[in-house]
Amino acid sequence: MARHDSSSFAPSWYSAHDSTGAQAHDQRVRSFERLWRAFMRARVFVALVLLALQLFLLLTTESSTIGLTALASTYLLATVAVLLMWKPAEHGRAPTLQWIVTIGLDVAVVALLQHFQPGGGINFTPLFALPVLTGAILGPLVLGLGTAAGVTLLLLTEAALDASGFGQLDTARFLQAGLAGTGFFLVAVLAHQLALRLAREEAVSASSQAAARAQAAVNEVVIESLGVGVLVIDTHGVVRNANPAARGMLMGENYPEGARLLLSARPSWSHLAALVEESFAIDAALETETTIEHGDRPSQRLHARTKLTPAVGERGSLCVLFLEDLREVEARVRTEKLASMGRMSAAVAHEIRNPLSAITQANALLDEEVREPAQKRLTKMIDQNAQRLSRIVDDILNIARPQPSRADSHVPPLPLDSMVRQVTAEWMRQNSVTQTLGVHLHASQGLVAFDPEHLRRLLVNLLDNALRHASGKPASIRIVTQPSGTEHLRLSIWSDGGPLEASVLKHLFEPFFSSESRSSGLGLYICRELCERYGAQIAYQRARLDQREGNEFYVLMPLANAGATAAAPARGGGGGHQLSLSPASNPAHDHEHTIVDPLRSGHPPLAPG
């Protein structure tokens, strides 16, 4: 047999379930105990028959004595005691007291009955087969052969004793004893071989059952964790089984556990029912795109395909229906396109940089020559737009190339509260939301290593996202800054929108993925990229603020002056700057603002993306 190196792969996924080691030993012990108890019950039954026979002979004829009846009674008590009070010895051991009490007692009782039975009309020789089988099946082959040899000697001795009474040898009696002994030897050998064969078959069967159970468990885990919906449907359109993804696509997150689905039960599933019915009719796999309308949530576009299983007995074949959310498929396609576009845009940006530098230099020379105010305004406009294009080129190149996890050392520390106050004021003027936004600043001493333009983009993207999902009521959007531990500042943008769907949460920070057709799906992706560039973490959670549930996007930013701001929380609680823009955001209501800080409450921030 080939030897396997310790570093090589296991020969099978289910090798851990093979019948080796402690598990195989337990299996053999259980099998041995089951057979041992079967033989002990057989001994009790034989003892009952012998006692009944002796009582019958004692009462009806003179072919039995009180001594033989007492012997049968004692044998019955002994067999019952062994069955109820004695644990079986381990299989394969050398003969012990238990084997002597069981096998030896059986041979002795049968021999005594055979020898002292009056009249000799009853032959008890076939009962010797029970101890021979017990030794051959439950013990090693030596024990079985030894029992057969002992029985043979007893039969020959009995024949010799009977013959000596008449003064001559009975050849037929000796021949009969020898044939019976030979038969017992054959029974011992055959029974032992059959027992070994059955034990091996049982071990193989147990190993196969363990492998089948392990495979079923693995299949169940894989199917349950699939993002693709899987349904098993019979010829009547009844869903026999469905994984959580399929149940979520058909009935949402609050589906009833253990409910048996019927595809024709709802009009929105009629396309799926027709697809399955047609697949059964033509006995072929089909696929199509369909839309499921939900009353309490947005409609869902799905790609559905069927596959028929082979017919099994009278039940016939089943149809396996696979459902895949087209938004996730399109998101993967968009991500692949993004990768190729990133490589292409980086090459284009390199080509744009040279002529852009030439335009900037030519405009600077032209600006030195012109004197009229109108011409000065034109050269200034050219310079501003050229600088804007240059920043766009730099951003494209920065996204295309790998970025460090921390901000570069040349980025100057930026006061967070001052920057948030400036950006929110501009954002409110541009979006005319003076009553919608509440600003609460409690990190007046905090400095962060963030580029001002990048922090502005981060805030604007998060505020635009909150505005799209907020109710529009006063104070339906809140922005809060506060210390988080001694080394971080926490920037939170909260809105009172409804909870996000599970399918949206899964791809929240991925590029080009959005729950709205008007959105490009790049806002949160850019926010995550900017945060990772400066060592910050961005995450989402449902949070309660002013007794209202809402969506919160929070950013944990490392302090640029961790040593200087270690005592800031003691001063910042009451002296923090606050911009009150709505009735619900004035200082009188600040004690109601409860936004969870993951670093102080023991809840770790969600991993980006």
Characterization of the model:
The protein has 609 residues and is of the alpha+beta class. It folds into 4 domains: 15-208, no CATH class; 227-329, Beta-Lactamase; 337-400, Orthogonal Bundle (Helix Hairpins); 414-601, 2-Layer Sandwich (Heat Shock Protein 90). It contains 16 helices and 14 strands. The chain has helices spanning 21-60, 66-85, 97-116, 129-138, 141-166, 171-225, 244-251, 270-282, 326-369, 373-400, 416-431, 452-469, 502-506, 523-533, 568-575, 598-601; strands at 229-233, 238-242, 261-262, 287-292, 300-308, 319-325, 414-415, 437-441, 447-448, 477-484, 488-495, 537-545, 548-558, 578-579. The strands form 3 sheets. It has a 6-stranded antiparallel sheet. A 6-stranded mixed sheet has the order 12-13-11-10-8-14. A hairpin with a 7-residue loop joins strand 4 and strand 5 (300-308). The longest helix has 55 residues, at 171-225. It is elongated, with a radius of gyration of 44 Å. The protein starts with 20 loop residues before the first helix and ends in an 8-residue tail after the last helix. The relative contact order is 0.05. Mean pLDDT is 77; it is low at 1-19 and 563-609. This is histidine kinase. Keywords: Kinase, Membrane, Phosphoprotein, Transferase, Transmembrane, Transmembrane helix.
